[in-house]
């Protein structure tokens, strides 16, 4: 699953001859992009990146060439990382933690800018926020203590919840950093936490069945490639078992999930364009401090809430960035 060259504003892909895209006398700069997602997600994220680059004077098909690949599969991401690195791009962009791991293993010298990566220091991607070191820097989602907000939102939306299932993929290296704050906050709220590791579809079904067997259970879902792949199934099972659930990103709520609280991913891709621009102009990633998301979205699906018999507090609806009717 791959495409060559993304045309911003049109949302389509094409394979143009490389020479035809270069302005006469100019060297077309090459950008390799690796994204954790499916084709529509990858196209939308590359469109946001291209939008940010265009504002800085970099036009795909004129003075830059964007080659992008996407997948949820870890092995395929590794293969695509090697492929992109072999194209000797001027800069690589990693969309997500799994693509960043793949690119990190494939290439130690090409500059890498990341977007939508959780806590890059705790996950060992950079030495520090202020001084990343090495060839990697970028734009992180948020610090892992945001998981406390997920628990608080769940309790506010569904006050009867006394136990929460925290569903995570153990292949996601950041999961312990999210779980620990939830466990600490749950104790102060008089709640219990059940951490459920999932690595395939069957384990996801078992985790949700287990949650449904407990009275007043709620669900917090930590995003990862395997979770994203099964996103619609998770949402359907949560609805079937009448489990109030909080998700990482808005796409879950758009597909019928109850609520999400997390970074605006498209804003992070647009902002990542500023670091791609600086690298293309000669700056080193080691000198560019890691930046965190500045736009955090609360999205609520009112139709799903009504189906679960929940009344969303008016104060929460008033602060939501979007309410899906």
Gist of the model:
The protein has 325 residues and is of the alpha/beta class. The protein has helices at residues 18-21, 39-55, 74-86, 97-106, 146-157, 175-188, 201-212, 225-229, 231-240, 250-254, 265-280, 302-307, 314-319; strands at residues 2-4, 6-7, 12-13, 29-36, 64-71, 91-95, 112-117, 136-140, 163-168, 192-197, 217-221, 245-247, 259-263, 291-292, 296-301, 322-324.
Textual characterization of the structure:
The chain is of the alpha/beta class and 325 residues long. The protein contains 13 helices and 16 strands. The strands form three sheets. It has a seven-stranded mixed β-sheet with strand order 1-5-4-6-7-8-14, sandwiched between helices. Strands 10-9-11-12-13-15-16 form a seven-stranded mixed β-sheet, with helices on both faces. α2 (39-55) packs across α11 and α5 packs across α6.
What is the β-strand count?
16
Helix content: 40-55%
| SSE order | EEEHEHEHEHEEHEHEHEHHEHEHEEHHE
Named CATH topology of the largest domain: Rossmann fold
As a whole number of angstroms, the C-alpha radius of gyration is 20 Å
Quickly count the helices: 13
For the largest beta-sheet, the strand count, sense and barrel status come to: 7 strands, mixed
Mean pLDDT: 89
Termini Cα gap: 34 Å
Shape assignment: elongated
Q: Uncertain runs with pLDDT below 50, 5 residues or more?
A: 1-25
- Domains (count): 2
Please report which band the strand proportion falls in: under 5%, 5-15%, 15-25%, 25-35%, 35-45% or over 45%.
15-25%
């Amino acid at each position: 699953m791959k495409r060559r060259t993304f045309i911003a504003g049109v949302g389509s892909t094409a394979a143009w001859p490389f020479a035809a895209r270069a302005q006469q006398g100019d060297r077309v700069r090459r950008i390799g992009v690796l994204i954790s997602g499916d084709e529509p997600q990858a196209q939308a994220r590359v469109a946001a990146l291209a939008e940010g680059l265009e504002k800085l004077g970099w036009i795909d098909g004129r003075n830059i060439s964007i080659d992008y690949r996407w997948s949820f599969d870890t092995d395929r991401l590794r293969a695509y990382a090697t492929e992109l690195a072999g194209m000797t791009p001027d800069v690589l962009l990693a969309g997500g933690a799994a693509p960043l791991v793949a690119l990190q293993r494939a290439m130690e010298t090409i500059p890498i800018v990341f977007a939508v990566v959780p806590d890059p220091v705790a996950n060992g991607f950079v030495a520090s926020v202020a001084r990343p070191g090495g060839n990697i820097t970028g734009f992180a989602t948020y610090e892992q203590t945001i998981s406390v907000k997920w628990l608080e939102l769940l309790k506010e939306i569904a006050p009867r919840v006394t136990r929460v299932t925290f569903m995570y993929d153990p292949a996601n290296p950041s999961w312990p950093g999210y779980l620990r704050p939830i466990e600490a906050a749950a104790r102060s709220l008089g709640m219990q936490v059940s951490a459920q590791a999932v690595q395939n579809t069957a384990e996801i079904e078992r985790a949700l069945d287990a949650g449904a067997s407990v009275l007043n259970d709620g669900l917090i879902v930590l995003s990862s490639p395997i979770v994203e792949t099964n996103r619609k199934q998770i949402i359907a099972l949560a609805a079937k078992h009448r489990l109030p659930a909080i998700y990482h990103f808005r796409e879950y709520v758009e597909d019928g999930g109850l609520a999400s609280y997390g970074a605006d991913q498209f804003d992070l891709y647009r902002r990542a364009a500023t670091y791609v621009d600086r690298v293309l102009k000669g700056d080193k990633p080691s000198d560019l401090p890691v930046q965190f998301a500045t736009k955090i979205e609360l999205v609520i699906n009112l139709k799903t809430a009504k189906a679960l018999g929940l009344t969303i507090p008016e104060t929460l609806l008033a602060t939501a960035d979007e309410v899906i009717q």
